[in-house]
Amino acid sequence: MKQFFKFVFASFIGFLLTIVIIILILVAYIASSGNNKSTEVDSDSVLHIQFTKDIPERTPSNPFSGLGFLGLDEDRDIGLNDILANIKKAKTDDNIKGIFLDESDMMSGQATVEEVRNALIDFKKSGKFIIAYSEVYTQQFYYLASVADKIYINPKGIFEFKGFSSQITFLKGAMDKLGIEAQIIKVGTYKSAVEPYFLTKMSDANRLQVTSYLGSMYDHFLTGISLSRGINKDTLFNYANQLRIQFPEDALKYKLVDGLKYKDEILDELRQRTGIEAKKDIHSVEINEYNQNDGTSDDDNDKKGSKNKVAIVYASGEINGGDGDDNSIGSERISEALRKVRLDDKVKAVVLRVNSPGGSSLASDVIWREVMLTKKAKPVIVSMGDYAASGGYYISCAADSIIAEPNTITGSIGIFAILPNLQKLFNDKLGITFDGVTTGKYADLGDISRPLSPDERAILQNQVNRGYDEFTKAVATGRHKTQKYIDSIGQGRVWTGAQAVKIGLVDRLGNINDAIASAAKMAKLKHYKIDAYPDQKSKLNKVGSLLNSEIKMRTIKSELGENYIYYQQIKSVTQMMRTPQARLPYEIQIK
């Protein structure tokens, strides 16, 4: 009886706690609904910018913003859309005297950093200052900081300037030990996404393409720093090649920074530049709060209250079937968004913002179809982010025009499929055998407990070949090229945005604002509003996943750091084994 009452009491307490949590969530949501108070910006303020996490395309919808409830508001994310808008706003805000670019990890891709960097360059046209400071300068953050008027490093800090590298993790050895064979069916000499599963080192073709696009990105990196710092590009190459910069004093000696200072000295300089008395607090506003400072639109093109719209459809993440979410592309959700803007008479032009390494070839084709239909109704411009490769390029190729950053990763026009053969694992390692009955020769095609027969491999190869033919035909039609030419630059080969312009896969270099301006021009709009699609999924609608999957993902990212990419790679293997893939390998990571 005693145990019975203990059990009942424990269940009752658990029930009460659940009710309390639900009530707190509802209270937080109700409070946040009215939590639109403006962040007050004092005169002589500094806009404080610090990036410690990956930058998403859009600021996530978070009803708990500003409440710090259950840690859901901790380290609030800010999207690239708001970062660019806030820097643009600060340019003409009389209360903002300058920008303090504080030490940052800059975990985002090269093209995202490029967009922020260009926004800072534009900000400097106002005559306002930018000061950069860090204890540790990664190459990514230094590239961003190189546009600052003054760059400072801690006297005992770390300055990284050594060139780019890209490394691939090969799994074949581990798979051999486990008795797993990756049966590869692919089209494309350069389609390297499958290499880690059947090779132990890079193929010659893959080494050629990686050398090519890595060299293109590094050249752009050096060119940007050269222009900002007034140092010859070849000189910068030699600094890195000979590892001349080993200590902060070296960075100062070779004019990559302007001084060695501690944080208190930086704060003193900010006081002087903003006219704040010594020992007084500096007036500053965080960039993720600045967009709340007045609640008004920053759209210069909508001063006359036009009803016309330019729609931005965000397609970010892996491409798969279904709904997806704000960090992955679900063919159903993106297709629905494209249909919505196509049928909306107020939407006069569409910008498709693509930041994707690809994924399911079928899901990519579903989205491509909607892009084709939308283009028949109104102008469609593609703006490419860090990646728009393989399936990401597939959904882009039908647009009227494609705009990319010089360091966007794109192309990778190819198809592959992976089917595991686990016979040795089951039989030799685990002692498991299988037997069964079929009603036809190919009834058990795809069974992972045995190897493919030559006939079965031929069938799957034919399916992949057909997918590649359809892919290259779609690109040829969209880019007004012959299919033969697309095949010659396809074959799964990866290109940078700068290279893609030269071979006709991209029309010109530029950022998302250039794409918006181009779309408006094609639609002959002078005044318009900008609407974003698809609707973001509120964190209130996914509290369960927030408290489980999102927190788990953040924990894994925090614990693994740069090694998170290997976790992604292993996790993606199961997805690759379901359907033919138009996908870029996860391993493309520039260090």
Written account of the structure:
- By secondary structure, this protein is an alpha/beta fold.
- It starts with a helix and ends in an 8-residue tail after the last strand.
- The chain contains 20 helices and 21 strands.
- Helix 2 runs parallel beside helix 3, helix 3 runs parallel beside helix 4 and helix 15 crosses helix 16.
- Strands 8, 12, 14, 15, 16, 18, 19 and 20 form an 8-stranded mixed sheet that branches. A 6-stranded parallel sheet has the order 6-4-3-2-1-7, sandwiched between helices.
What's the total number of strands?
21
Which percent bin holds the helix content?
40-55%
Mean pLDDT figure: 86
Contiguous low-pLDDT stretches (5 residues minimum) are 28-36, 66-74, 294-298, 543-547
What general outline do the C-alpha atoms trace? globular
Pairing-aware structural class of the strands and helices?
A: alpha/beta
The number of helical runs is 20
How big is the Rg?
26 Å
Determine the strand fraction and express it as a percent band. Answer: 15-25%
Quote the distance from N terminus to C terminus: 64 Å
Biggest sheet character: 8 strands, mixed
Any chance you could write out the topology, listing elements then pairs?
Blueprint: H1 2-33, E1 45-49, H2 80-92, E2 96-101, H3 110-123, E3 129-137, H4 139-145, E4 150-159, H5 172-178, E5 181-187, H6 204-229, H7 233-241, H8 248-253, E6 259-260, H9 263-274, E7 284-286, H10 287-290, E8 309-316, E9 319-320, E10 324-325, E11 328-330, H11 331-343, E12 347-356, E13 358-360, H12 361-377, E14 380-389, H13 391-394, E15 401-404, E16 409-411, E17 415-421, H14 423-429, H15 454-479, H16 483-489, E18 494-496, H17 497-503, E19 508-509, H18 512-522, E20 529-533, H19 543-560, H20 564-576, E21 581-583
